[in-house]
Structure formats: structure tokens, C-alpha cells
Amino acid sequence: VFERSTIADMGMGAFLGVAQGSREPPKLIVLRYKGDPSDESNAVGLLGKGITFDTGGISIKPAANMGEMKTDMAGGASVISAMQAISQLRPRINVTTIVPATENMPGGGAQRPGDIVKAMNGKTIEIDNTDAEGRLVLADAVAYASSLGLPKLVDVATLTGAIVTALGKVYTGAFGNDQELVEQVVEAGRQTGERIWQM
Questions:
Q1: Is 152 a catalytic residue?
Q2: Under 8 Å between Cβ of 172 and 195
Q3: Which DSSP string do the residues of 159-185 spell out, in sequence order?
């Protein structure tokens, strides 16, 4: 579990920008399973959004139903739970799980619309709406996963309410740039009763 100082040393300015409004310190949680240690290329990264409470920050959400925002860490919870299952099933694959965990709060130190942050990969990002925090923490999680050389990444997140508008509460939306991997994920969902629709 990496603390704020190490997260800063790694250059994760997008993640820390989201975290700076909360008095609770951010954590970067990394879990590793080595099921095929002789073949580093037989690997996958599982990334999960871990926003433990999402007020929307300065771009605050409406009060109605905000209590549900304690579930904005469902992506992180999913991939950590997956690691528990992986440790019991012992598949012949190497798995690294990465969860950037923090709150998105409107405190006195919170980032503001118009701020510029720099992600771990050196890209700068202008903040337009502080309630778009998921893509910021995941940008640094993806950059970190890439720095580890992980060849395949699966990202799980409650990233946008717009997916509920598109698919209702019946399907999970899937986006990807590796069609074979997307099809494997969709098929795994079909076999386990988790309905996934490729967008």
C-alpha cells in the first residue's frame, strides 16, 4: 500500500489532485499473484476505481441519493475480491491488481475547475468538472500498470451514470481496444451471469 509521499514521488498528479480535498490520506493499493513466475508475459492487470466517497468535489452532486456514492469504490472492491478468488483457484497466470483509493471531497484544499494536473505519464489535464474524478485516478493507475509492462489491462469502474441511461441496470458496458480480450471478458460474464454489453 503506497502512501501519499510515494504516490507524489511517482508523479501521480491526477490521482493526488482528486485526493487533495479530503483529509483522509489517499492509498495506492497493489496486489500481486504469481501463478506463472517463469513467464512474465503471461500476465494481466486488474485496475479498479476506488473512490470511497464521491461528493463530486467543488462540482458538487445534488443531495438526493448522494448516500449511494459510498459505492463509488465498487470497481476497486471487485478487483480486490477477484484477487481473493484467484488466490484460491490458483490459475497459471500472473495477476497484478491496482486500486487508487481516495475520497472526492469539496474541502478547502480541493482542486478547482480550471486547475491543471500532470499525470504519471507526463500528460497534463485541465480540470473542467471535478465530478469527473474517476478518469483522473484511473489515468495514473493505467500509467503505473504500463510502467510495470503489463500486456493486458482490465479496468473496472463506476465511471459514469450515462451507462445506466444507455443500458439500464441490467448490463455492464464494456469498452476496449483489444477485441479478443473484450470477447473473453464478455464470455466470462455470460458464463457467470454477469451481463456485459460491448459499446
A1: no
A2: yes
A3: --THHHHHHTTT-EEE--S-HHHHHHH
Closest CA relative to residue 77, chosen from 101, 106, 61, 95: 101
Q: Any catalytic annotation for residue 61? A: yes
At a CB cut-off of 8 Å and minimum separation 6, what does 167 contact? 173, 197
Q: Which residue in the list 135, 152, 190, 195 is annotated as catalytic?
A: 135
Give the number of other CB atoms < 10 A from CB of residue 192.
Answer: 8
Q: Which pLDDT tens digit goes with each residue over 79-125?
A: 999 999 999 999 999 999 999 999 999 999 999 999 999 999 999 99
Question: pLDDT tier at 160 (50, 70, 90 boundaries)?
Answer: confident
- If phi > 0 it is left, if psi is from -120 to 50 it is alpha, else beta; for residue 65 that is left
**Which pLDDT score is estimated for 161?**
84
Give the residue among 29, 10, 19, 186 at the shortest CA–CA distance from 96.
29
Q: Which of 4, 61, 118, 152 is catalytic?
A: 61
The per-residue b/e assignment along 64-86, b for 16 or more CB within 10 angstroms, e otherwise, is eeeeebeebbbbbbbbbebbeeb
Q: Tell me, what DSSP letter sits at residue 85?
A: H
Residue-wise over 24-62: b if at least 16 C-beta within 10 A, else e? eebbbbebebebeeeeeebbbbbbbbbbbbbbbbbbebe
In 88-108, which positions are buried (b, 16+ CB within 10 angstroms) versus exposed (e)?
eeeeeebbbbbbbbbbbbbee
Please tell me the distance from the alpha carbon of residue 95 to that of residue 31, in angstroms, as a whole number. 8
